[in-house]
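To: structure desk
From: M.T.
Subject: fold request, one chain
Message: Could you run this one when you get a chance? Sequence is below, nothing fancy, just the single chain.
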Amino acid sequence: MRVAILGGTGSFGHALAHRLAALGEDEIVIGSRDAARAQEAAEAIGSPNVSGATNEDAVRGVDLVVLAVKADGALDTARDIAGALGATPLLSVATAIQFQKGVGALPDPEALSLAERVQQIVQGPVTAGLHSIAASNLDAAPPDEDALICGDDPDAKELTLQFAGKLVAGRALDAGPLASARALEGLTAVIVNLNRRYKAHAGVRITGLE
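Reply: Done. Structure tokens follow.
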């Protein structure tokens, strides 16, 4: 599989690229607004399977695009790459949580999830997932967690489930339609609060499934 990781110079994108490079199964293109930064991030991983390019160039000719930029830049990035992306599936992993002093992390107050808003911009099918997996957990080893994936397009969802299944020691699970991203993104705030309260790196495991 050829995968573009937009935001590959950030903590989660870099950890994701590093994990995929360690597996050695896929060709990875790290995307950034700055081609030089993207290439520098690719060289830091030190794998012949990893290269760097501008976001727009990175999404051309790939099988899957992972939108791993920070939440406040996700919609602008989606607009920038929409033409080059075409019908290619896109996995949205960002969460627009808010922080309130003395309270903690709060879910995004918007009615639609960030992933749904991205789908309004791009032509290709959008899936959402990996929200509960921390960069620190992903970078060290396959985390003992389940990866929850949602989306409306069956083929894009299946591709994303196959992709996510490589990343975790648990399972990649179908969490329903793209509207479920509202709950998955909100779950990120819950996990952030748990990790802060208990000084941990919590993830998610679903029980009761065969």
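Reply (cont.): Strands lie at 2-6, 27-32, 50-54, 64-67, 90-92, 98-100, 104-106, 126-129, 147-151, 172-174. Let me know if you need anything else for the meeting.
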